[in-house]
Amino acid sequence: MGKLAILSGGGALPVMIAQAHPEAVRIVFEGVAHEMPEPVELHSIAKMGAIWQALKDAGVDRVVFAGGLGRPALNPADMDAGMMSIAPRLLTAMQQGDDALLRLIIAVFEEQGFAVVGAHEVLPDLCAPEGIFAGPEPDDVALNDAEKAKEVLDALAPVDVGQGAIVAAGLCLGIETLQGTDALLGFVAQTPDRLRRGKGVLVKAPKAGQDLRVDMPAIGPETVRNAAAAGLAGIVVSAGNVVLIDQPALKEALDETGLFLLGQVI
């Protein structure tokens, strides 16, 4: 078997994978903030052909995408032949939404002979288990809010909107969009009391049909603290399909805030 390569964006997840797989090739990108420890290889996203060649030269046969990258601004003048060869497909996919773009990324790496694996495959203990992870048992109100939030996410899945929704006493306070979960929680924190009843629950789950190899939802300690600041009672995640970042710190944050974290089959 060849080597694993970590194509790293920001956040703690790429670091966790690197710590578990110290032999892995670590790729970071120009203009993208990262926490990946040395040694790293710095590449331009615009020069995809150079990335593929570097991976092949290093004996890589598997790649894992981890961390946030966003959508880089690409200048055709900066592209190498490899990127130019996929640029028309890339532009089309970008207009169709995140799912289409991520499916294309998987496809072009597989066309180059690389197996694309998910973070949950290289770190199987990362995923949320079924049942209470930490915190108090949710009451019936919280469980009903979670069910309503799941209905919201199911309704939005066909239009590729987001992976999270917040419901309080049956009222939807917000949905996750391109800005992410923390932005959603910040928005809900600003909701005036006259517009909400009860505390509410955040539900986080993959979109229907989402390929978890390149876009797995994640919950970390900061998410818990932001949920507390938004006045929520707890968080419900899709068991086996959501990454729990820095689990000791996550449990500590749940203990500090009094929130629950529950894994359910969603």
Radius of gyration: 19 Å
CATH class of the largest domain: Alpha Beta
Q: Which oligomeric form is depicted?
A: single chain
Instruction: Give the CATH architecture of the largest domain.
Output: 3-Layer(aba) Sandwich
Number of domains: 2
- CATH superfamily caption of the largest domain: LpxI C-terminal catalytic domain
Order of helices and strands: EHEEHEHHEHEHEEHEEHEEHE
Largest sheet entry: 6 strands, mixed
- Strand arrangement across the biggest beta sheet: 6-13-11-9-7-8
Total helix count? 9
CATH topology of the largest domain: Cytidine Deaminase, domain 2
Domain LpxI C-terminal: 129-261
Domain LpxI N-terminal: 3-126
Protein name: Phosphatidate cytidylyltransferase
Describe the protein:
- The structure is a single chain.
- With 266 residues, the chain is α/β, with parallel strands linked by helices.
- It folds into 2 domains: 3-122, Rossmann fold; 127-264, Cytidine Deaminase, domain 2 (3-Layer(aba) Sandwich), CATH 3.40.140.
- The protein has helices at residues 13-20, 48-57, 81-96, 98-111, 119-122, 140-156, 181-189, 221-229, 247-257; strands spanning 3-8, 25-29, 41-43, 60-66, 115-117, 131-134, 164-168, 171-175, 201-204, 218-219, 234-238, 243-244, 260-264.
- The strands form 3 sheets. It has a 6-stranded mixed beta sheet with strand order 6-13-11-9-7-8. It has a 5-stranded parallel beta sheet with strand order 3-2-1-4-5, sandwiched between helices.
- A hairpin with a 2-residue loop joins strand 7 (164-168) and strand 8 (171-175).
- It starts with a strand and ends with a strand.
- Residues 129-261 form the LpxI C-terminal domain.
